[in-house]
Write a structure and sequence with these properties.
Elements lengths: L19 H16 L14 E6 L3 H4 L1 H6 L5 H10 L3 E6 L9 H5 L3 E5 L9 H12 L4 E5 L6 H7 L6 E13 L13 E11 L9 E8 L4 E10 L2 E6 L12 H14 L23
Parallel strand pairs: 1-2, 1-3, 3-4, 4-9
Antiparallel strand pairs: 5-6, 5-7, 7-8, 8-9
Helix pairs in contact: 6-7
Length: 289
């Protein structure tokens, strides 16, 4: 069972006061966990995949419980884990100009991760449209986390309410990997547990996923489609459920591994640009000059 050590820096299974040799073994084990990452964070041309980690960054400023878990914002451990996996990472937050998502930033982003909760309505509609174009037309990947299911960008891309059941009772969650051949499953066990979470339950009002990677069971009895993949235009979208702000979810090594694999899967593939409109035939048509 994962139990983070203060100040919520993952220390593996090495207990406090363990020998330096034991700590070294744990560090090597962590490197092995990352070793299966997609060509060490490289994309289809062997170039580093560029990730922008977006966080609303409001709970951490207003709630002492959240600040105790994520003193610098939950975007920091997410970004740190992705850098460790070999990606080129920058962060952006809601209160920055253009929410940190200028045209230039998005053009330099291969995959955008998104966490929001209490300020969905403050995200400007023109920024949402900008992100949506970058996904659908530009092929940027999008990873939507936890309560981001109600974000403007996710609902715009899904076309549904994206509503669900929920309960905050610090219960256990077991995530089952139901598509072990999927790239996001790389290097993961058949299942893993998170000791304290907020429950999300079905029905989850989303379109049927193109690929379902994880299903969650909760201690209270509910189940949930917790790892869902979608294709929209040229872009790929991965919704991953864990991530309630009062629990150290993003310090968990399995969650970090899923995010790293998700970035590799969602990154642009280098396929051709969309080519729409009226076109002349490629071959001569019978009876026409």
């Amino acid at each position: 069972m994962f139990r983070p050590a203060a100040p919520f820096q993952y220390q593996g299974e090495v207990p406090p006061g363990a020998s330096a040799a034991a700590a070294g073994r744990d560090a090597r084990a962590r490197k092995v966990l990352w070793a299966s990452q997609f060509i060490a964070g490289k994309g289809w041309l062997g170039m580093a995949i560029r990730v922008t980690v977006w966080n609303e960054f409001r709970h951490e400023k207003k709630n002492e419980r959240v600040r105790a878990v994520y003193p610098d914002g939950m975007h920091v451990p997410i970004a740190g884990a992705l850098r460790e996996a070999g990606y080129e990472v920058r962060t952006a937050t809601l209160d920055e100009p253009d929410h940190g998502l200028s045209e230039e930033v998005l053009e330099q982003t291969d995959v955008l991760t998104w966490w929001g909760h209490m300020a969905h309505g403050e995200v400007r509609d023109d920024i949402v449209a900008r992100v949506q174009r970058r996904v659908v037309e530009g092929g940027m990947g999008l990873i939507v986390l936890h309560s981001g299911h109600m974000s403007k960008i996710f609902r715009a891309l899904m076309g549904t309410t994206c509503m669900l059941k929920w309960r905050e009772a610090a219960e256990r969650e077991r995530l089952w990997l139901v598509e072990p051949s999927h790239p996001i499953a790389r290097g993961l066990p058949e299942s893993f547990e998170l000791e304290h979470v907020e429950m999300y339950g079905e029905r989850f009002d989303i379109p049927a996923p193109d690929e379902l990677v994880f299903v969650s069971w909760f201690q209270g009895g509910e189940v949930f489609r917790s790892g869902c993949c979608f294709h929209r235009g040229r872009g790929r979208i991965f919704y991953f459920r864990p991530g309630h702000e009062t629990f150290p979810i993003y310090h968990h090594p399995m969650v970090q591994k899923v995010l790293a694999n998700g970035v590799a899967w969602a990154a642009p593939t280098g396929g051709p640009a969309n080519n729409f409109g009226n076109k002349k035939p490629l071959e001569a048509l019978p009876g026409r000059s």
